[in-house]
Amino acid sequence: MKRGVLGPVGLAATAGVAMLGAVSVGSAEGVDPFAATPAIPTIRISAPLDGASYQRGSRVLARFRCSENGPPARIATCTGTVATGRAVNTTSDGTKSFTVTATDTSGNTVTKTVHYSVWEYVNPLRAVGNLQASRIDMGVDYSGAGPILALGRAKVTLATDKLAGPESCWGKTCVPPPGDMIVYRLLDGPYAGKYVYVCEHITISVKAGQTVRAGEVIATLHQGSPNLELGWATGNGAYTLAAARHHQGRGTDPGGWSSIEGRNFNALLVWLGAPSGYVTTAPSQQMPKGWPTLPARVKPGG
After folding, report:
1. In the chain, pLDDT over 70 holds for what percent of residues?
2. pTM of the predicted model over 0.85
């Protein structure tokens, strides 16, 4: 055989390579793996963030961009609910959506939507007439007369007028006569999941299981003794957070000192525009680990 000339075996081997090559290029689906990946628009939304929570009135500017994930087409349009750099909707509380649509020069269109929530807290005492702040104990005490409002959007977990009992159980399973008490769980904002109690000398306007909006009337305060009290609850029936953490005053008066839970709730009320209660004795106590802190106050209009 002359050098450089293929014999039958060589031809068969060469043919085999060609055949194998044909099989590898022409896959079962008929897709050429060596072909360029088709260009498809991709969308990145930096603001509003998916799942984010924003205070009502916050100025949140839309930030997004559209690009291609391969050659050769280019982005023709990239449109959001509002243009990038413009403020998104934070004018009302609730769940909002923000959508961006991208179309390239080949006609491929992609849409991406994120969801965010807007929360609002209000001064629950803003409609009470002749409002006078009293001491801080397990919560904060006030006198006056008028409607009591829900601090934020919340679910009522307890609403009863049958919790009256001896002073020794106050803050645990009962309240001073007439025994009216509301507990609700905040659903939005930095304190979402935390429980608030409202009790003493009120007529209740809501029922357990009811969802209320921020600023909705939940009870009416009556002038006279005992004073209204608001504070953090545990969510376990009528237990206050201070009592559950053994932070109530010692001795015959469980409100004999200003617990850290009461001082913390007082700070929230003041942040919302309510008058501050006064501190009696302030023992060295700490809020639960990871407890939320007050955000920056948003001015009306953003």
Report:
1. 85
2. no
